[in-house]
Q: What sequence folds into this?
């Protein structure tokens, strides 16, 4: 299955739960201030992010469970799921800083935590820039429906739409809260780094 593959309508699919647990011994990409790291996960054409860990710096902990959708036919065939996990350091006044990434093909029926080395796309691939620990699990089956489907399929679509709306509302609330907290707690750190960049 391709990393950016989008699931067509009226296809059997599965919820796929990906949990980003933690990272260890990451490279400190800031000259001043604290590392505030979040993970950006891309699976099956969708990208989702964890919250920012503002406490543990180069050893962040999230235990964030993210929900994706994968085709059921790929599960039946035993296909692996290409996944990309990128790590960034959050900044207030400029672009977030790239920390590292992990490209991995997931066996959907595997159970248990996995730990892999973090790489950087601008460095020697043989060098590790810390480790990332995650786990994943398959969820329930359902039909990806459209407006021309039967009433039962339409009901599934309505339920999924409602879930998406709720998730969007929660995400927006979390983003607003996180932004407000970062502006209050991290102002001095970012000002110091921006002054250094101008020298």
A:
């Amino acid at each position: 299955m391709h990393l950016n593959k989008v699931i067509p309508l009226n296809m059997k699919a599965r919820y796929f739960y990906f949990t980003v647990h933690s990272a260890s011994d990451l490279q400190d990409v800031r000259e001043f201030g604290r590392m505030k790291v979040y993970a950006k996960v891309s699976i099956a054409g969708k990208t989702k992010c964890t919250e920012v860990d503002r406490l543990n710096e180069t050893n962040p902990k999230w235990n964030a469970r993210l929900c994706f959708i994968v085709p059921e036919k790929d599960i039946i065939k035993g296909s692996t799921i290409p996944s990309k996990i990128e790590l960034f350091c959050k900044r207030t006044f400029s672009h977030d800083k790239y920390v590292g990434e992990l490209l991995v093909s997931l066996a959907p029926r595997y159970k248990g935590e996995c730990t892999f080395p973090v790489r950087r796309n601008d460095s020697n691939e043989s060098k590790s820039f810390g480790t990332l620990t995650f786990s994943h699990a398959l969820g329930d089956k359902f039909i990806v429906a459209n407006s021309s489907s039967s009433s039962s399929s339409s009901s599934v679509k309505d339920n999924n739409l409602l879930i998406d709306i709720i998730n969007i509302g929660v995400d927006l609330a979390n983003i607003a809260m996180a932004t407000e907290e970062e502006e209050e707690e991290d102002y001095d750190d970012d000002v110091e780094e921006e002054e250094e960049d101008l020298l």
Notes: Residues 147-154 have pLDDT under 50 and may be disordered. The domain at 10-147 is CATH 2.60.40.150 (Immunoglobulin-like). Helices lie at 72-77, 151-185, 187-198. The longest helix spans residues 151-185.
